[in-house]
Amino acid sequence: MGSEPSATAAGTIDVGGDLTVNRLGFGAMRITGEGIWGDPQDREQAKATLRRAVELGINFIDTADSYGPEVSETLIAEALHPYPDDVVIATKGGLTRPAAGRWDADGRPTHLREACEGSLRRLRLDQIPLYQFHRPDPRVPLSDSIGTLVELKAEGKIRHIGVSNFSEEQLRDAQALTPVVSVQNRYNVGDRSSESMLDLCSQEGIVFIPWAPIQETDKKAAVRAAAERLGVDPRQVVLAWLLQHSTQMLPIPGTGSPEHLEANVAAASLDLTAEELSAIATGG
Asked: What is the CATH number of domain 15-215+249-254?
């Protein structure tokens, strides 16, 4: 690998058929304060991390109004606006943060409309390229929540609709109302409960965005062995595994540190052997 890692090494993926991004993105949850609550300890470092992400070829940035709340979106605009032409900002609505440690679902149409319009203001956008419903609200019919996003799309405030924390049945219900271009579910080497969802996304050309992509990294002997062979951190190995496991995968590792960011991006250039890929996949 060269001295300057690049997200271009991950290859590209199309979001919605008309937005092409490099297949290693940036999750902007951890540029906020501890517990994803309030401002980061160092706002300038958080903004420097965002700018460094773009310098390293990352052009897909994932956030949500609930990160902070509102802090992540505000920092993204402060650091990157006016956005480079190829940068795609994805955000989410449907969770509220009444207190630190609280993540409450709110899928009411009135809330989702207010959330989307708040995100537009904070991000300084006329249209959100990818707006994702953060989590189904059991108190609100899914058709009401998704229907609101369909209305916002018709008004030009949303370009594409994605979903997060969805089951396959919920995805099918949403698809009956509108095209869904992405699914963001928890997925990593230790939690592959969404493997069938990943398969579905691969069959239908839907982008699969794994959240918590580097959890439980050190528990895998096969991950540690590959890291030792390559002379890298185990977290880089699991990111490389995600990229090589499925071409529909768009990992979004997050960090508030430019140094950690560079290590994450360097994972795009790692080449795991077929034996390593298999050993990690089978839980070795």
From this structure: 3.20.20.100
Tokens representing 45 are: 């470092």
> Annotated catalytic sites, by residue?
67
CA distance 203 to 199: 6
What are the pLDDT digits (tens) for 34-58? 999 999 999 999 999 999 999 999 9
CA 96, CA 108: separation in Å to the nearest integer? 11
Token reading at 236 = 């880089």
* 87 CB neighbour count, 10 Å cutoff: 18
The mean pLDDT value for 188-216 works out to: 94
- The two beta strands, 60-62 and 88-93, are parallel
Determine the average pLDDT of the residues in 266-270: 97
Cα diameter, the chain? 53
Cβ atoms of residues 253 and 217 within 8 Å:
no
Token pair listed for 227 = 């890291």
Helix (H) and strand (E) counts in the chain? 10, 11
Q: Which two tokens stand for residue 30?
A: 């951890």
**CA-based angle 165:166:168, to the nearest 5?**
150
Q: What local confidence, expressed as pLDDT, does residue 219 receive?
A: 78
**How confident is residue 10, by pLDDT bands cut at 50, 70 and 90?**
very high
If you compute the radius of gyration of the chain from its CA atoms, what whole number of angstroms results? Answer: 18
Q: Is the pLDDT of residue 283 over 80?
A: no
